[in-house]
């Protein structure tokens, strides 16, 4: 019976192997091993590219807002103020809110970096970054962004933005990371979401003090001051001389732009 079931599954596995699945589905052990090394390679590339960028604040938001949109301009101002506070602005590297935050930081003379993603619709990186790295897998991209961030500012956005927001909230709520400031920007835009969170409190699925994990605001200055105050106080951030890159760890060559696919 077992052998018969095994034979019946073979055509199905063959069909899956021929399709371009994003996470590639169950495959042979050899293919799974190669997949593991691809994940490792992308992770190391992220580490080596972003190690020297300084304390980052990640700004999340929609890729769809154009330059004349209010929230684009709010994100641009946010990037500018963060740069003036000495933070590196990190985004997903794409257009819209991401471009605006990177642009504001660069125009203010600050550091601007991004973690771009390869998508079927071919998202390209925006032109306002000093350094960026492109990933194939969302989970590695999020991991790298969260690893190098000291705070998160969530601007209006769609499903991807909500994914990033709820991961940040979950990490702080479960104490996987401690004391990270989270700002939810745009009261009118997020009011239904805040209502849903209040329903969770009413039904007992989250604690009332979980709502205190987020600063809920429409004020760019308040958002940046909140991030600066809490990030500096809680992490003891201070200006220090940047360490020299290591040739052994390939950091020297990355800084010089000599490795492929790294800027």
Low-confidence stretches: 1-19, 256-263
The run of helices and strands is HHEHEHEEHEHEHEHH
> So how many helices?
9
Query: What is the helix fraction of residues, given as a range?
Result: 40-55%
> What's the count of strands?
7
Content of β-strand? 5-15%
Average pLDDT rating: 84
- The separation of the N and C termini measures 55 Å
Largest sheet: 7 strands, parallel
Mind telling me the C-alpha Rg? 21 Å
The class by helix and strand makeup works out as alpha/beta
Strand order of the largest sheet: 4-3-2-1-5-6-7
Overall spatial form: globular
What does this structure look like?
By secondary structure, the protein is α/β, with parallel strands linked by helices. Helices cover 49% and strands 13% of the residues. It has helices at 2-18, 29-50, 70-84, 97-107, 138-147, 159-173, 187-203, 220-235, 251-255; strands spanning 56-60, 88-91, 112-117, 131-135, 149-154, 182-185, 214-217. It has a 7-stranded parallel β-sheet with strand order 4-3-2-1-5-6-7, with helices on both faces. The longest helix has 22 residues, at 29-50. It is globular.
SSE diagram, text form:
Layout: H1 2-18, H2 29-50, E1 56-60, H3 70-84, E2 88-91, H4 97-107, E3 112-117, E4 131-135, H5 138-147, E5 149-154, H6 159-173, E6 182-185, H7 187-203, E7 214-217, H8 220-235, H9 251-255
Parallel strand pairs: 1-2, 1-5, 2-3, 3-4, 5-6, 6-7
Helix pairs in contact: 3-4, 3-8
